[in-house]
Design brief:
Shape: globular
Distance between the termini: 25 Å
Largest sheet: 3 strands, antiparallel
Strand content: 5-15%
Oligomer: single chain
Strand order of the largest sheet: 16-15-17
Number of strands: 17
Number of helices: 29
Structural class: alpha+beta
Length: about 750
C-alpha cells in the first residue's frame, strides 16, 4: 500500500548529523527495511547493549533543531536547511531580507501550495510533512520500545532499560509534536506496523486523539521512577531527555491544545466554512464550547505538577548575574546581559530543560556554518532582521515602556522656519549650541555616555532592557561582551546609513545583513565576518538549540494561572517577575500601577488584576485582554528566535501580526558645522567611522548624534500585508498544507482548509 512508502520505506536512523554519533554499527536503510519482514537486523542490534544504546542515539540525531545550520545533506532534516528558512521570519518581529529561502519564495510572495515536487521539499512548507525524519523517528522509537527487553540483563540492567524506554517515548512524542503543531491532526502510529497492515487505511487522527496520545505517552515516561528529573551527569549528558523535559513538553502540548486555534471559545473553526470532514483535524469538536474551560484547566494542572516537582527536586534555576547586582540601574545592564546569555548559550546552564545539538561544517564543528557564516556582511543570507515593532517592545532599563513619541518629545522642539512654517529642531544647549542628549530620547534610546579625555570611543552605557542587546544588534552597541567580567569591548556596530556595518542596506533592503537597521544577536554573538570570525563571543562554542527552558515555563505558567477557572493573578505576576528580575527589571505590575508606564504602553487598567478583565479588541476579529497582550510581549522579549513568537501567533490566531505593515529604523550620522552667521548647525555625514573617518582623522571620535526615522520595510514585502486579517485568504496560513502527493495516495489524508 502506498502509505507504506511514506512511513516505512526508508531508514529510521541515519546518523550523519548527530553530535553524539560516533558509532560504527550500520542501522540505516537496509537495516530497518529488513526489520519489517525479518528479525535478523533486530537480533543484531538488540542482543548487544552498546548497539541498542547507539540505536537510540540515532533517534536523537533526528530531533528538530531550530536554526538553519547547513546547506543540504543526505540525512539532514529539511528544516535545518537555510534554503527553507526560519519560522520566526513569518512573524511581526523579524523580517528576512534574503530572497533565496522559502520564507520569501513561498510565504512572503504567497506562492505556497500543497504541490511539493522537489525531492528536497524546498518548494513546500518550512517544516516538511515527510522530510524531517519524524516518521522514521516515531517508527524507530516503537521498534526500540518493543525490543529493548531482548538485551541480555547481564549487559544492561532493568534500571537503564526503563530509563532508555522513557527517553524513547519523549523522542517519539517530540517528533510527532513538531509535525502536529504545524499541520493539525495527523496519523498516529502507536505500534510497529507489519507488512500485513500496510494495506489498511491510515487516516488523520483527530486533534483530541492526537493530544491525548502524546500526553499519555509522556505520562508513561513521567511515571517511571527510573526516569531521572535531571541526568546523573549534566555536564556530559546534556541533551538527554529527562523527567523535567517530559513534564515541560506536556505543558507546551496542553498549552497549544487549550489555545484558541484548537480550542475556540465560540466553537467555530479558524477558517470560515471549513468542510465538516476536516473539522476534527483542525480543532476540538467534541463538546467544543462545553469543554473550553476544562482544557485550560488541564493545561494549568500540568503546570502545577511541573512546578511542584521543581520545588521538591530542585536543580533547575535561572542563571543570575555574578556578584548579585541589585536594582534597575544602567550600570548593571551588562551583567544582566551576561546572565541572560549564559542561560541559553552555555551547555552548563541550569535553566535548560532540553537542548539539541548538531554537527556543523565549520572548522570547529560548532554548528555555526550557515547560521553564523551565512549571517555576515559578505554572505547575508540568514538576514532575519528584527523589526522596529520588535525593538520597541523592549523597555528602558528601569521598566518604563519605550514609546517613540515620548522619546521624540525629548529630542525635538517645535520651531518656525524663516518663512513662518512649523518645523521641529533638535533640543540644544543654550550656551554651546550642542545637541542635548537627554535620557530616554531618540539620541539615547540604545546607548549613552561620554568620550573620556584622551579617548576616541564612547564610554558606553546601555539604556534599555538588557535582553534587547542579546536579541538584537543595535547602532552603537560594542561588539564584544566578556564571558567572565561582562565588560564590553571592541568597536561599536555602525548601523547608520553608510556606516561601516550597515552600509546602504537599510536603503536597498535587499540581500543585506541589516535591512531593517537592526541585526539579530541571539545564537550569533558574532562580529559580521564570514570565515572563522575568531573575534566573535561565540567562537569555539557549540551552538545548541534550546528546545525547552525554565524561563519559558515561568511565562507558560503565568498564562495558565490567568486562564484557569480559579485565576491567580498575583502568582502569575510572580512568575513573570522571575524572568524580569533576572535581568534587573522591576515587577510587571508597574506597567499598570504607574501612570507614566501605563500611558506609554497604551493600557487603561490600573492593576494587573484589572488588566485580566480589560478587553482588547483585535483587528483579526477576536478579543483578548491587556494582561495576555503584555504577556505575549514578555514572551518574545525573553524567547526571541526560539520559534516562540511563531508558536504564539499560530495558537492565538494572530493573523493581525501577519497582515500589518512592518518597519525598520533609518539613522543618518550628524556632525556639527557653522552657518554663514556663525551659528552651530548639524549636517549629515553618511560615511563610516571605522575604516574611514577614524582612520583618516586622529581627532575624529565615535559618532553619537543621529537623525532617526522609522521607515516602512519594502524589501521582500509580504503579500499578506494590508489584507483583511479576518479573511480566509489570511486565516488559511495558520496551518500548513499537507502534500497533495500524499493525499492522492488515498490512504485517508484530508487537506487543511484553504489549500
Amino acid at each position: 500500500m502506498k502509505q507504506y512508502k511514506v512511513l516505512l520505506g526508508a531508514a529510521a536512523l541515519l546518523l550523519a548529523s548527530s553530535v553524539a554519533c560516533t558509532d560504527e554499527i550500520a542501522v540505516g536503510d537496509a537495516g530497518l527495511d529488513k526489520a519489517t519482514s525479518s528479525t535478523a537486523t533486530i537480533d543484531t542490534v538488540f542482543t548487544n547493549a552498546e548497539f541498542a544504546r547507539q540505536f537510540l542515539i540515532g533517534i536523537y540525531s533526528k530531533q528538530y533543531y531550530g536554526l538553519p545550520y547547513t546547506n543540504g545533506g543526505t540525512y539532514q532534516p529539511h528544516a535545518g536547511n537555510p534554503y527553507a528558512g526560519k519560522s520566526d521570519g513569518l512573524t511581526d518581529c523579524w523580517h528576512q531580507f534574503w530572497n533565496g529561502s522559502a520564507v520569501f519564495g513561498k510565504y512572503y510572495n504567497g506562492s505556497l501550495t500543497a504541490y511539493v515536487t522537489r525531492p528536497d521539499g524546498l518548494d513546500g512548507p518550512l517544516y516538511s510533512y515527510d522530510k524531517e525524519y519524524q516518521w522514521y523517528s516515531i517508527r524507530a522509537s516503537l521498534i526500540f520500545l518493543a525490543n529493548l527487553d531482548r538485551v541480555p540483563s547481564r549487559d544492561m540492567g532493568d534500571d537503564e532499560k526503563f530509563r532508555l524506554k522513557a527517553e524513547a517515548r519523549c523522542l517519539m512524542v517530540d517528533a510527532f509534536w513538531q509535525t502536529f503543531q504545524r499541520f493539525g491532526g495527523i496519523p498516529i502510529m502507536d505500534h510497529v506496523l507489519e507488512n500485513s497492515e500496510t494495506v489498511n487505511p491510515f487516516p488523520r487522527d483527530s486533534v483530541e486523539k492526537c493530544i491525548d496520545w502524546m500526553v499519555n505517552q509522556l505520562d508513561s515516561a513521567i511515571a517511571d521512577s527510573h526516569f531521572p528529573w535531571v541526568t546523573e551527569d549534566p555536564t556530559n549528558m546534556s541533551g538527554r531527555w529527562t523527567k523535567a523535559g517530559a513534564m515541560a513538553l506536556k505543558c507546551k502540548i496542553l498549552q497549544f491544545a487549550a489555545s484558541p486555534l484548537l480550542n475556540p471559545q465560540d466553537g467555530q473553526p479558524y477558517y470560515t466554512g471549513a468542510p465538516a470532514e476536516v473539522l476534527p483535524f483542525i480543532m476540538y469538536t467534541s463538546d467544543a464550547k462545553t469543554n473550553y474551560q476544562q482544557r485550560w484547566d488541564r493545561f494549568a494542572t500540568a503546570c502545577d505538577e511541573f512546578f511542584d516537582r521543581l520545588n521538591s527536586s530542585g536543580y533547575y534555576a535561572l542563571m543570575t548575574a555574578d556578584g548579585s547586582p541589585k536594582g534597575s540601574t544602567e550600570a548593571n545592564v551588562p551583567a544582566f546581559r551576561l546572565a541572560y546569555r549564559k542561560g541559553y548559550f552555555l551547555r552548563s546552564s541550569t535553566e535548560i530543560l532540553h537542548s539539541v545539538r548538531v554537527f556543523g561544517q565549520d572548522n570547529m564543528a560548532t554548528a555555526r556554518y550557515c547560521w553564523h557564516s551565512w549571517y555576515s556582511q559578505s554572505v547575508p543570507r540568514n538576514a532575519y532582521c528584527p523589526t522596529q515593532e520588535y525593538v520597541e517592545k523592549f523597555p528602558f532599563y528601569d521598566g518604563e515602556p519605550f514609546n517613540w513619541q515620548n522619546a521624540s518629545d525629548r529630542t525635538y522642539k517645535e520651531a518656525k522656519t524663516v518663512d513662518g512654517r512649523d518645523t521641529l529642531v533638535f533640543l540644544t544647549n543654550s550656551k554651546t549650541g550642542a545637541i542635548t542628549r537627554q535620557t530616554k530620547s531618540l539620541h539615547t534610546m540604545f546607548v549613552r555616555g561620554s568620550i573620556p579625555s584622551g579617548s576616541r570611543q564612547l564610554n558606553t552605557v546601555l539604556t534599555r532592557d538588557p535582553r534587547l542587546y542579546e536579541e538584537c544588534i543595535v547602532n552603537g552597541l560594542q561588539k564584544n561582551l566578556d564571558w567572565t567580567t561582562a565588560t564590553m569591548s571592541g568597536y561599536p556596530w555602525e548601523l547608520w546609513y553608510n556606516g561601516a556595518d550597515g552600509g546602504t542596506g537599510v536603503f536597498t533592503q535587499t540581500n543585506t545583513m541589516f535591512g531593517s537597521g537592526y541585526g539579530y544577536n541571539k545564537y550569533y554573538l558574532g562580529t559580521g565576518a564570514y570565515s572563522g570570525d575568531a573575534s566573535a563571543d561565540s567562537y569555539r562554542y557549540q551552538t545548541q538549540w534550546v528546545a525547552l527552558s525554565l524561563a519559558d515555563m515561568y511565562l507558560t505558567y503565568a498564562e495558565a494561572l490567568v486562564m484557569r477557572t480559579n485565576k491567580d493573578v498575583a502568582k502569575a505576576v510572580e512568575m513573570v517577575d522571575k524572568v524580569r528580575e533576572r535581568v534587573g527589571l522591576p515587577t510587571m505590575s508597574r506597567i499598570w500601577t504607574m501612570a507614566k508606564n501605563r500611558d506609554a504602553a497604551g493600557y487603561t487598567a490600573n492593576s494587573a488584576e484589572a488588566a485580566v478583565a480589560t478587553a482588547v479588541n483585535l483587528p483579526n476579529g477576536y478579543t483578548t485582554n491587556e494582561f495576555i497582550e503584555e504577556l505575549l510581549d514578555e514572551r518574545v522579549r525573553e524567547l526571541g528566535l526560539t520559534d516562540a513568537r511563531w508558536f504564539d501567533m499560530i495558537r492565538y490566531k494572530r493573523t493581525d501580526w501577519m497582515t500589518k505593515q512592518l518597519h525598520g529604523l533609518l539613522q543618518h550620522r550628524l556632525v556639527s558645522d557653522k552657518d554663514a552667521a556663525g551659528n552651530m548647525i548639524f549636517v549629515e555625514r553618511n560615511v563610516a567611522w571605522v575604516g574611514a573617518d577614524r582612520d583618516n582623522d586622529e581627532s575624529s571620535t565615535q559618532p553619537v548624534d543621529f537623525r532617526s526615522e522609522v521607515v516602512e520595510i519594502k524589501g521582500n514585502a509580504r503579500v499578506l500585508w494590508g489584507q483583511d486579517p479576518k479573511s480566509n485568504t489570511v486565516q488559511q496560513w495558520l496551518l500548513n498544507p499537507l502534500p497533495q502527493a500524499e493525499i492522492n495516495k488515498q490512504y485517508g489524508l484530508v487537506q487543511n482548509p484553504g489549500w
